[in-house]
Amino acid sequence: MLARFLIPQTRALASLFPLLLVAACQVPPPAETAVLAEPVPAEVNVAADAPRYAVDTGASEIRLLVYRDGPLARFGHNHVIAGRVRGEVRAGDSAASSGFRLEIPVDSFAVDPPALRAEEGAEFAAQVSDEAREETSRNMLGEAVLDAATHPLIRIESVALTGPRWNPTVTARVTLRGATRDLRFPAAVFQGADAIEVIAGFRLRQSDFGIKPFTALGGGLLVRDAVDVRLRLAARRDNEGPHIPPLKSSHFRGAITP
């Protein structure tokens, strides 16, 4: 599924990566939210002295799976929303000495690309009209949701990585629409001589961030509280590329309509 995004490596790595990545994509997100009940008493840590890998924006993606719910759910759609990722990964000798700093431009979000809906299977098999996609995108980027005009970027920054460097547990700080929450989730890391691939999947609840899920038709149609997130990074060794400055913490707000 993801083989076309892989960065060429040694022959052994090239033959192994596709199998590992497909396996990682087939693992469902955890049932519980990745958002921590309390913020972590630590600052963002991106290990500035570790080797730097620049994220390949064209080969990296964040994907949101948003589900319809309620007794009138048949009148809505599940949505696949995909955005581009840029930034840096710092790969030290251990997970603890590694980190990352990522940005997602909110205007890069594409709503319901047909190829991605096909990848996600039966729950996304229904056809979505151009009009419905455009309406969802307008609502998502508008002032009441992502407010793209005022807050054009989403930030994801590492606070701590623990465990083996190939399968670390990640504590990250997410800043969206000027608000921040701390998350914890597992990741899979595949590293070659000059490139790194990272796969992660986790679940968020809108209510984790104080969001009231969108409702319509007298409350009969609503967006499910849980949103599944998939993240894929492809990064190349780059010691001279531009750096993303750290961001001060703030507070979260946002939602997505059906």
Overview of the structural elements:
There is one protein chain. The chain has three helices and twelve strands; from the N terminus they run αββββββααββββββ. By secondary structure, the chain is mainly beta. It has one domain: Lipocalin (Beta Barrel), CATH 2.40.128.110. The protein has an eight-stranded antiparallel β-barrel with strand order 1-4-5-7-8-9-10-12.
From the coordinates shown, what is the CATH architecture? Beta Barrel
CATH-level-4 superfamily name: Lipid/polyisoprenoid-binding, YceI-like
Termini separation = 26 Å
Q: Give helix % range.
A: 10-25%
CATH fold-level assignment: Lipocalin
* Strand/helix succession: HEEEEEEHHEEEEEE
CATH C-level label: Mainly Beta
Strand order, largest beta sheet:
1-4-5-7-8-9-10-12
Tally of helical runs: 3
Integer tally of domains: 1
Mean pLDDT: 81
The unreliable regions are: 1-28, 246-258
Keywords:
258 residues, mainly beta, Lipocalin, eight-stranded antiparallel β-barrel, 14% helix, globular, disordered N terminus
Please provide a brief summary of the model.
The chain has helices at 11-26, 114-120, 130-141; strands at residues 52-55, 61-69, 79-83, 86-90, 99-105, 110-111, 153-162, 169-176, 179-191, 195-205, 215-216, 221-237. It is mainly beta and 258 residues long. It has a single domain, classed as Beta Barrel (Lipocalin).
